[in-house]
Amino acid sequence: MDRRTFFRNSLGVSALAGSYLAFGEPKELLAGVALRLSTAPVDLVAVRGGEVAQMFQKGIEAFGGMGAFVKKGQKVVVKPNIGWDVLPERGGNTNPKLVAEIIRQCLQAGAKEVVVFDHTCDEWQRCYKNSGIESAVKDAGGRIAPGHTEGYYHDVAIPKGKVLTSAKEHELVLGADVFINVPILKHHSSSRITGALKNLMGNVWDRGFWHGNDLHQCIADFGTFRKPTLNVVDAYYVMKRNGPRGVSAEDVVTMKAQLLSTDIVAIDTAAVKLFGSDPKDIRHIQIAAEQGVGRMDLENLNIKRITV
Question: What is the pTM for the complete model shown?
């Protein structure tokens, strides 16, 4: 076995171990089926095994459809990760097929407009184009918007923040009736994991402050400002190392999974388990839970597990 094959196989074993943590052994999956008969509200949906749009369709059905979140005439802002000038298969950005399906579902639910943006790290026009997200948004009937200049961002106070007490937030989020947060799950050299909480850094202009003043605390602080209406974690292509941009396709495992929740801490907790790590080792998740942003106690939540 050559070195490249060994590495890819090792990633596969790690990813499989993580998926068992998030989705459970076969007996636990059967328990997930039983949850479908429960009358309690669903806290988190974990879907695996299908194609991107199909998994979202199954996941949103578990919440009663997109109409549970989007009402007629509302303005929806969808915030994927479009930070990097890489192709979808590299796992650096949210899968464009997921973004497109979310837009279609929002419009079918009666949304007046669905707008997509990100404050990118690489040159914004190349990120939008080469990620496949710009064309996916337009084809689905949404509008792609820029986030590359400071004029789009406005000062906001973060009353519950301990380190981050103010920020400059994109005007689209400030004016949205519905805000849908759609990160991709991947490794990150600074925060260790990119998930739903970390993805909110793409909402702001002045994120340099975050990196120089306890990144984990700032991520948690910003989570107290405005909680997304819905979080959807894309774990179809998962970058297991060299994040957030990645080096090559060798960094990526095809996991074919997806998580949905209104609780940004719960979904990150599940995402970290899916990744194969311990959520207690990711400081910003732990801090956000302590600050009351959401819950880490997955064992006490109503989780619906779906295998496509």
Answer: 0.89
